[in-house]
């Protein structure tokens, strides 16, 4: 049974969207790569808009997390039907059915693996420490520019520019989401720990 959406639900829904956006981004970036971050953000935004429209009319489902993941998966599969995306991904995943690959990436263990891969990718030493932190808080944790600015004693405009530079650098370096080698992981682990602390600390303050 669904419960009717009320004003008091808004904070919980905002927190839910933030939590799920990081999961969705991790899955989609693993499939499409950093070069298609705009497409990924569109899919996530469309998923949240669908949720607000449906939940306002019919109420919040008993398992809203599963609802969001299912809708984003359906939107992704529909998007893969576009010839340009399918042709490129067919080449990338030669010998695999794309729909089956999508189903696999939405398994719980694969979601966690994708999140970890994104975290280590964002902690690439090509980026400044501040860029690493800002980018991760943005794409993996769903914080907006103002929240990131407040956490790092910066301004929203400075955060916006830093995130743009970080994305451009990752694109230029052709960073992938393969599991990092042992020496690469060792180089990044301190920053990974720092960012995890920030995620939990800022997430707690926002609740």
Give a brief description.
With 207 residues, the protein is mostly helical. It contains ten helices and no strands.
Structural notes for this entry:
- This protein has 207 residues and is mainly α.
- It has 2 domains: 106 residues, no CATH class; 94 residues, no CATH class.
- Helix 7 crosses helix 10.
- The longest helix has 25 residues.
- It is globular and about 45 Å long.
- The two termini are 26 Å apart.
Key features of this structure:
207 residues; globular
Beta-strand portion reads under 5%
Cα shape? globular
- The structural class is mainly alpha
Biggest sheet descriptor:
none
Compute the CA-based radius of gyration: 17 Å
**Residues in helix, %:** over 70%
Mean pLDDT, rounded to whole units?
82
Number of DSSP helices? 10
Query: What is the chains' assembly state?
Result: single chain
* Element-by-element helix/strand order: HHHHHHHHHH
End-to-end distance: 26 Å
Tell me how many strands there are: 0
Number of domains: 2
Stretches where pLDDT is under 50 for at least 5 consecutive residues are none
What order do the helices and strands come in, and which of them pair?
Layout: H1 10-32, H2 37-58, H3 64-80, H4 83-92, H5 98-105, H6 108-122, H7 129-139, H8 145-152, H9 156-172, H10 182-206
């Amino acid at each position: 049974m669904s419960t009717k959406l009320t004003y008091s639900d808004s904070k919980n829904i905002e927190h839910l969207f933030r939590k799920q956006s990081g999961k969705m981004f991790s899955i989609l970036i693993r499939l499409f790569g950093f070069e298609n971050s705009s497409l990924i953000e569109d899919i996530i935004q469309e998923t949240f808009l669908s949720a607000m429209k449906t939940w306002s009319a019919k109420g919040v489902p008993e398992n809203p997390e599963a609802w969001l993941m299912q809708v984003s998966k359906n939107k992704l599969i529909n998007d893969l039907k576009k010839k340009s995306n399918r042709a490129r991904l067919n080449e990338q995943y030669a010998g695999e059915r794309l729909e089956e690959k999508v189903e696999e990436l939405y398994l719980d263990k694969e979601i966690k693996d994708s999140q970890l891969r994104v975290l280590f990718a964002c902690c690439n030493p090509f980026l400044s420490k501040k860029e690493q932190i800002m980018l991760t808080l943005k794409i993996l944790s769903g914080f907006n520019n103002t929240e990131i600015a407040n956490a790092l004693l910066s301004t929203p405009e400075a955060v916006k520019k830093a995130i743009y530079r970080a994305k451009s650098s990752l694109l230029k370096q052709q960073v992938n989401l393969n599991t990092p080698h042992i020496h690469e992981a060792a180089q990044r682990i301190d920053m990974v720990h720092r960012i995890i602390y920030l995620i939990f600390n800022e997430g707690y303050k926002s609740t």
